[in-house]
Amino acid sequence: MTAPQLRRDPITGRAVLVAPERAARAGAFFPPAEFPDDAADCPFCAGREERTPPSLFELPGNGVWRTRVVPNQFPAVREPLGIAEVIVERPDHATDVADWLAVLLTYQQRLKARREEGRWQYGLVFKNHGLNAGASLSHAHAQFIALPAVPPNVAAELPACVGGCRFCDLIASESMADARVVRATDRYIAFVAIAGRFPYETWILPRKHERAFEDADLHELADLLGDALARLDAVLGRPAWNLVIHTAPWTGADFHWHIEILPRVAGIAGFELGAGMNINPVLPEDAARFLQSPPVATGGL
User: Fold this and answer.
1) CA separation for the pair 42, 126 (Å, rounded)
2) Residues with Cβ < 8 Å from 134, sequence gap 6 or more?
3) Which secondary structure element, helix H or strand E, spans residue 236, and what is its range?
4) Percent of the chain with pLDDT over 90
5) Is the Cβ–Cβ distance between 156 and 253 less than 8 Å?
6) What is the pLDDT at residue 298?
7) Helix (H) or strand (E) holding 144
């Protein structure tokens, strides 16, 4: 058994304990939690648009919208603290995204629309998938919040792009080592984070330096993201996960945008809350090896 290791995130210096021995303890991993059947009362399904606030944006489809954006009826922020929106990611009632290209185009549109208003400093897209990740409805959806200040997790990453780019250095080192790379394409790379806070934490980055997700080419990204999530489903049995997009602040600071996928298969407890340091019970190199050769064929969700 691999002895516990103290690892530091190469971007922020954040400390994480990697402790594979912890994986053997009772209750180390959450079993998959299924939503109750909420289809009959789901406000996000096509044909029930009157049950949400009016649309802010709709991506048209064949006779019905493909994605739809509405104000969040239960917002974490209101002006002047920010603006909160819900992105409904498909018209029919299902938990998985059917068309990642349409969804990513919608994410881009909301970021661009709020950026152009000139009133906000940052836009955060995030997705809670599954009960253990904090989702309250099973219908595939994400959230977008425009903020008057750069949030702390992004602010902690900004120094990595001053006088060079540590994200670019990280991509080069991960590509060379190849121990944690899950898949790479011409434009993008997906790898298990060397100091992941959660088991199987996976990052997706553009291989060349790009400031903002708003300006990204999405076709390869849609394929790679769908594939990465399918691999997690195959290995972990359809886990809950959070997805966040870190893009450049609208203040003009340099950055290297990226996506973080955080599987919620293990919880946090007293040590994590008291020390401010996560314990990851799965060696990232082991996680990458399982994701590289999942037990079933992979593909877009």
Assistant:
1) 21
2) 128, 242
3) helix 219-236
4) 91
5) no
6) 43
7) strand 141-147
List all residues 6 or more positions away from 93 whose beta carbon is below 8 Å from its beta carbon: 39, 42, 44, 45, 138, 139
224-263 pLDDT tens trace? 999 999 999 999 999 999 999 999 999 999 999 999 999 9
Residue-wise burial string across 65-98, b where 16 or more C-beta atoms lie within 10 A, e elsewhere: bbbbbbebeebeeeeeebbbbbbbbbbebebbbb
Rounded-to-10 torsion of CA 219, 221, 224, 228: -140
Which single residue is written with the structure tokens 């836009």?
A: 123
Q: What gap in Å lies between CA 108 and CA 30, rounded to an integer? A: 33
CA distance 54 to 227: 33
- Measured in whole angstroms, how far is the alpha carbon of residue 75 from the centre of its chain? 20
* Six token digits for residue 198: 């959660």
Q: Which residue has the tokens 């060397």?
A: 194
97-122 tens-digit pLDDT: 999 999 999 999 999 999 999 999 99
* Interval 17-41 mean pLDDT: 87
CB 280 within 8 A of CB 287: no
Per-residue pLDDT, averaged over 17-37, amounts to 85
Q: Are 228 and 204 in contact (CB under 8 A)?
A: yes
